[in-house]
Amino acid sequence: QKGETVRIAFMDPLSGPFANVGQNQLKSWQFAAERLSGAKNPAGVKFEVVGFDNKGSPQESLNTLKAAADQGFRYITQGNGSGAGLAILDAVSKYNERNPGKELIYLNYAAVDPAMTNEKCDYWHFRLDADTTMKMEALTSFMKDQPKVTKVYVIGQNYSHGQQVAKYFKEGIARKRPDVKIVGEDLHPIGQVKDFSPYVAKIKQSGADAIVTGNWGQDLTLLVKALNDAGLKVPMYTYYAGVTGTPTALAAGGDSEVYVVAYGHANHTGELGAMGADFFKKFSDDYYTYATYNGINLLGAAMAKAKSTEPAKVAKAMEGLAVKSFAGEVTMRASDHQLQQSMFITKWQKAKKGEYSVEKTGYTFVPIKEMAPYISSTPTSCQMKRPA
Amino acid sequence: MLKIENLHAFYGKSHVLHGVHFNVGQGEIVALLGRNGSGRSTTAKAIMGMVDCTGVVDWKGKHTLGMKPYEIAHLGLGYVPENRDIFPKLTVHQNLMLGQKSAKGGGRWSFDDMYEMFPRLKERQHTEAGVLSGGEQQMLTLCRTLMGDPELIIIDEPTEGLAPKIVELVGEYLKKLKEKGISVLLIEQKLTIAMSISDRALVMGHGSIVFEGTPDTLRADAYIRKEWLEV
Amino acid sequence: MNASASPMTPSAYYGFKPLNIGRWVVWSLFALVLVAAPLVFTSSLSQTMLTQMGIAIIVCLSYNMLLGQGGMLSFGHAVYSGLGSFLSIHALNLVVKGQWPIPVSLIPVIGGLAGMLFAILFGYVTTKKAATPFAMITLGIGELVFAMSLMFPEFFGGEGGVSSNRVAGPKPFGITFGPQIQLYYLIAIYTFICTGLMFAFTRTPLGRMLNAVRDNPERVEFVGYDTRKVRYIAFIIAAFFAGISGGLAALNFEIVTSEVVSGYRSGAYLLFTFLGGATFFFGPIIGGILMVLAFVLLSEITKAWLLYLGLVFLFMLMYAPGGIASLIMMNLRVAAFGRLKELWVSYLALAVTAFIVLIGAASMIEMVYHLKLNPALGPQLKFIGISLNAHGLDSWFGCIFVMLTGIGLFEVARRQFARQWGEIQEFIEKEMKRRESL
Amino acid sequence: MSNPYALELKDLRKSFGKTEIIRGASLAVNAGERIAVIGPNGAGKSTLFNLISGRFAPTSGEVLLNGNRIDGLKPFEINRMGLSRSFQITNIFPKLSVFENLRCGVLWSLGYKYTFLKFLADLDDANERAEALMHMIKLDRKRDVLAMNLTYAEQRALEIGITIAGGATVILLDEPTAGMSKSETRRFIELIKEVTVGKTLLTVEHDMGVVFGLADKIAVVVYGEVIAYDTPEAVRANQRVQEAYLGSHVAEAQAAGGGH
Amino acid sequence: MEFFTISLLNGISYGLLLFMLSSGLTLIFSMMGVLNFAHASFYMIGAFFAYTITQLVGFWPALLLAPLAVGLIGAAFEKYCLRRVHKFGHVAELLITFGLSFIILEVVQLIWGTSSVDYRVPAELSGPLFTLFGTQFPAYRGFMMLVALLMLVAIWLLLTRTRIGLVIQAALTHPETVEALGHNVPRVFMMVFGGGAALAGLAGVIGGNAFVTEPGMAGAVGPVIFVVVVVGGMGSLAGAFLASILIGVVQTFAVGIDSSFLGAAAMAGWQITPETFGYALWKLKVSQVAPILPFLLLVLMLIFRPKGLLGTREG
Ligand SMILES: Nc1ncnc2c1ncn2[C@@H]1O[C@H](COP(=O)(O)OP(=O)(O)OP(=O)(O)O)[C@@H](O)[C@H]1O
Ligand SMILES: Nc1ncnc2c1ncn2[C@@H]1O[C@H](COP(=O)(O)OP(=O)(O)OP(=O)(O)O)[C@@H](O)[C@H]1O
Ligand SMILES: [Mg+2]
Ligand SMILES: [Mg+2]
């Protein structure tokens, strides 16, 4: 397979309100592919990533999937939104069933609905990010050791992700710190709240000393701003403070204590650090989708192992495959195709010299704790159906 | 004061006025008669710059053709449209206010003059004009134009839908306007009133003037009456 | 009772009903196109697009029942197609589980009934009002349903939506609906029948009264009809067809997510129905086709597709507010008077010059987008076969030059055309007057 | 059953806000009579029609149609009971053709209701009736012209056509000849006479020529009351009517010159 | 008490903010009858202009210049586009503003990129205005409330002290007649539309840094400002004001209410279990639906009082 070109179809919003994220991630994939092509990967193949605009819509994703399949793409990658992710997962599964010999592989780099590796798991789907439960394992493990945390307020967007965050947090913390009280829980419609001050008043009244939220985008920044405005200094534990645009908005809102749980952070050194710096030089934008690095590496290793770029063989090779990543070794768990990897808790603060200034804000996310893969590993209910 | 020469008017491609000539002097009431569809309303609109036309419209030595309606109105021409174009959602008083060309007022006529002329309007001054009776609306359009203090007023069928008694009253009023030196171009259907108050009568047929003379000559001219006014 | 007793009644007038040949031809052609389309466009993407066009045609036509025929501007039509989709997919899941013994091909009817059911429910309040209040209530209900759809994963399936498998239940003649082409023909049949039914609706007493309600609701009350009931029934019928299209969409995608009830969807129905032409029955058919082309094809060709879409709407509204259908009808009228032939040179000139303008303008737009989105890929880009250098003055000058020349030539062509067109219209008016007075 | 009146108003009152516009109007019309309603501008003639036809609900009082109470009912309910009206300001379906306008007027009375299971083209009775109407109001030539493209007089004729289309037995016409020339008016009056044979007719008019030519009886409305209700001759002689409405010579001239 | 006071304050300030966002829309809608779908887009360009101008010359000039620029764009749009479709009716007018909102969104993304920009509250106005029960009330929020009130007064003066409103309303039914009475109707339309756009722009200058300035901001506020205008009553400024405050207060207090139908049912003696039909609906808390209450209010209002709170007409 040496010298072969492997084309990957990237499908995420490239136009419309979420284009910023999609564009950045497409560049990240292309950047990683270029950098890890040829001799840089054990299979010696050349990777090429082509963007398809799915507009964030599950139905449109199915169209782009058809378009990609028509054009001979055999590898699909997507990440923005579990809605589109589940649609692709399902469609890829059906496609492979109905078109034997022309199988597709779906590399999921950021859709984190646990269902995708549990009840709805599929042989052709591989997740590079960590799902909601894993992040919550890491987060609760971290919070367990924070004596300051005694009363927690949970707030989230009222849709599956927000509901899952609330649910898993309550389970996890009850297991690890039964003394921590949940003093309040709010679910608000997604994207509908313009003014968070009523919620802040509620949080203040509850006497909470920590906030846990799965909010992202505007729902997160407005919440942080409202807390700042009211002068309420309560640490926030979040999932998505690092997403494009959010750091800028956070910085504009002033100092606040925000923690993020993720499988990577802005201040990696070594290969990934260099990549981030080069990426910034080239695109004047942050490289934060580190899963692209793992993804290409994993594909390369699997192709080398399978001695083929044929998806059916590569998928088989990827099961249980371990590769070196930017933070230790990662393993693609065979039972549910969930990548097992280290998790980080990072804190939002003013960047010191030598630290990476996120979105040129002068702030950064510094890692304050790294957790080995086993800590965040969660059991799966997946009953993988493997092709005969 | 107003001189019209060789006026041609068009609605899109259809040619409606075919070279109209006439003039209106100071303090004169001129009746413009004719059958339905003969082009009288179009003449009025042409003078006000509301339809495409060619020819000469000369108002006090100024060519007004090609000007915008509001510019023409500011030169002192007033127009009372035919189908009671009152503003239905505004009150009677607000309708009158819009007749004034500047918010300060200061014309020859005040609100009170108007209310005195038609007491009925005073009673209804805070009602939405849209619910007024047909006749009340007709009164309102007339007063609204007067509020703009015109020197020449073009009235298109002012007595339409008015009770006989009120028709008489309108006639009286037009005469009073004349006394104040205001010229009137009166477009009418009802011969009786038009003949009784006007100084001169014009008869229009198929888009041009077919008769010009005093009411008396018109009364005498059976042919014109038969050919151009009746069936 | 008196009126018909008039001695002059031409009672024989309707005794003879000629076979309407034109209509037969049109409908046969429509059927033929539906049958032949997938044989011409064979790639799997074009087949999915054709499938979606069928779906879009039904929903746009049903939307136009409200907008074009009833004067009801709805901002929430996706609620009915969307809820139809959801109930269909749930029904399909029951079929998959073997709990419901109905054939898959009838699932869309369930969607239709679901749409109807919700229209009976919501329509009761929305159709109380007309005009702007109607529009606003539909907006409000649309927002509410959409917000709810995210809040209740139990029914709406959360972010991932509800998925299913259409290969289920009995398989008559080996038709599984697994291959896209089989599904296409199912949808084509539905499209044909629904279009036929909706056209038939416009020829019924209720359909006509709906037009009357659009034109002058007050007067309708004085000829014995309850305007609200007319609106209500029409609303329910429209929702039925919307639901059918939703059901077909559920079969096609085999997944239904909350986006199907979103305001974006409703907005898209509105825009494309209008673009196709709301004043003619067949306008929304064009609209539906354009909708799929824009969303699936245009967006792949260029990242600036939303900008183009916005511009197209703006110009369309300003210069041809009747939509594409009205342009077609205007030309048909000219053709009916036998004068279309003279226009082809002008049309060719217009098309060529407009194309030049378009190339110039589009190249510049593409360069701007390229600079913005792909600065790292260097200033070079390829656009419809032309290499452009987004940093090079020559590229910019070239584009501006092409565009300005195009505009100049276009204006010349347009003037010529306008003159000719005006003259022909004048001729037609005269001709019509003449025929009238015969 | 015992009520002989086609239309009866009993002490009808209507206020808008604080102003009372109709102040106890009473009127009884026998079936088959032609009544002209006259009165000064703003007396409440149109309002009276609005109350009868259900456009407004009266504040108090009763309206009986063939002995049945209809006050407070909706316009379409009243229409279904056999009362139809025209409007002072033309009120037709502008984007439908002449034929369609008339057919809309016919449909309910022939019992087609809200059906969408029959084709219009197959409703022979409705189509024949619409054709006949079109012929009667002399618009055959404009069959497929959109109503908004008709001339004013044609629109007025269509207005009447729609009004009589449903075969109502009681017909209210509000200034049917407004805006027409003498000759057109005359033609129109003939038309009205022709199409309302055997029906009860109430019409508002300011043209005394028309009034005296058309009406069997005249009702004079002043300040929301019916102050006189009698034969034309008696009304013309009535001193109060002279003062309130007719004025001096204009009325005479009009009445005399009405025929020209 | 503490919670009540703070919530009331929050509610009123949020209400004023809604009014600030919707005042321009009210102006255009009540006068011209145009449902301006691009209103939120004007709000957005206001914010982006302010961001750029602030970087060049500071916040205070931006407060003046950005609305002016937006107003000019609005006026130009009226003159070259909206005016042409006026004769085709309200649906066409609405759709053309719809089209405009697409274009504005794309252009904004082209100029300022697709992600949020760092537009901050000026130093003079950051920090708390006062502290109540240990909760700070931000100075900038006070500033916003003040501007909202100023807008109210300005529009009110415009409506009552000038005849612009009358001219426009009259021109909606009989434009030619109004012109014949001596009023320059096209110019008045242009000014009003431009004025409405400028108000939106001003709201953008002030709202942009209070919230987040990003291309998605238009979509986020779009629907709710329609609610304000409709609930308040078409054609009524006072109504819009009242509706803003009402929605602000209701929504704020609703966030504080954590009860659901479950509680009510329990009181009525019904047993609702997760197996009960529609359990998800039963367990919904008032606080969870708070942000969508405006839409519920809109639907209810239109059903029971279609004129809106203080409206004078239905359509
Ligand atoms: N907007 C229009 N578009 C096209 N033709 C028109 C228009 N208005 C009037 N016409 C035509 O122009 C001719 C003259 O109309 P005009 O209104 O001036 O007549 P008129 O003498 O005022 O009659 P009327 O008694 O009906 O008011 C008529 O044949 C009429 O059909
Ligand atoms: N909806 C309403 N609200 C307030 N006042 C009204 C309303 N409808 C009618 N009026 C008033 O009632 C009075 C009677 O009006 P109506 O239209 O019945 O008069 P009319 O007798 O038909 O007069 P005309 O002969 O001039 O048409 C008028 O003064 C009018 O202003
Ligand atoms: Mg006229
Ligand atoms: Mg009247």
Description:
The complex is a heteropentamer of chains A (388), B (231), C (438), D (260) and E (315). With 388 residues, chain A is an alpha/beta fold. Chain A has helices spanning 19-35, 58-70, 82-98, 132-144, 160-176, 197-206, 218-230, 246-252, 270-283, 291-306, 311-318, 373-376, and strands spanning 5-12, 46-53, 75-78, 105-108, 125-127, 151-157, 181-188, 210-213, 236-238, 258-262, 322-325, 328-332, 339-340, 343-350, 363-371. In chain A, strands 7-6-8-9-10-14-15 form a seven-stranded mixed sheet, sandwiched between helices. In chain A, helix 8 links the parallel strand 9 and strand 10. The longest helix of chain A is centred in the first third of the chain and has 17 residues, at 19-35. The radius of gyration of chain A is 20 Å and the shape is globular. By secondary structure, chain B is of the alpha/beta class. Chain B has two domains: 1-76 and 151-231, P-loop containing nucleotide triphosphate hydrolases (Rossmann fold, 3-Layer(aba) Sandwich), CATH 3.40.50.300; 84-149, no CATH class. Chain B is built from ten helices and ten strands. In chain B, helix 3 (92-99) runs parallel beside helix 6 and helix 7 (164-179) runs parallel beside helix 8 (191-197). Chain C folds into two domains: 19-319, ABC transporter involved in vitamin B12 uptake, BtuC (Orthogonal Bundle); 337-437. Chain C has helices spanning 21-40, 44-70, 78-96, 107-126, 131-151, 153-156, 180-202, 205-215, 217-221, 227-253, 263-276, 283-301, 305-319, 323-336, 344-373, 393-436, and strands at residues 162-163, 255-256, 380-383, 386-389. Chain C is globular, with a radius of gyration of 25 Å. The relative contact order of chain D is 0.17. Chain D has a six-stranded mixed sheet, sandwiched between helices. In chain D, strands 2-1-4-5 form a four-stranded antiparallel sheet, covered by helices on one side. In chain D, helix 7 (208-214) crosses helix 10 (249-257). The model of chain D is unreliable at 249-260 (pLDDT under 50). Chain D is an alpha/beta fold and 260 residues long. Classes of the chains: A alpha/beta (388), B alpha/beta (231), C mainly alpha (438), D alpha/beta (260), E mainly alpha (315). Chain A binds chain C through residues 14-16, 23, 27, 52-53, 55, 57-60, 62-64, 66-67, 69-70, 81-83, 85-87, 90-91, 94, 98, 113, 115-116, 120, 158-161, 163, 187, 189-190, 192, 282-284, and chain C through 43-45, 48-49, 52, 147, 150-151, 153, 158-161, 163, 165, 178-179, 249, 253-255, 257-260, 295-296, 299-300, 303, 305-306, 373, 375-376. One magnesium ion (MG) binds next to helix 1 of chain B.
Number of DSSP strand runs of chain A: 15
Tally of distinct domains of chain C:
2
- For this structure, the quaternary state is heteropentamer
Name the beta content range of chain C.
under 5%
Going by helix content, strand content and strand pairing, the class of chain C is mainly alpha
- Low-confidence residue ranges of chain C: 1-17
The end-to-end span of chain C amounts to 32 Å
Mean pLDDT of chain A: 87
Q: What's the story with the biggest beta sheet of chain C? A: 2 strands, antiparallel
- Estimated structural class of chain A: alpha/beta
What's the level 1 CATH class of the largest domain in chain C? Mainly Alpha
Helix and strand element order of chain A: EHEHEHEEHEHEHEHEHEHHHEEEEEH
The proportion of residues in beta strands of chain A is 15-25%
Unique ligands: adenosine-5'-triphosphate, magnesium ion
What level of helicity do the residues of chain C show?
over 70%
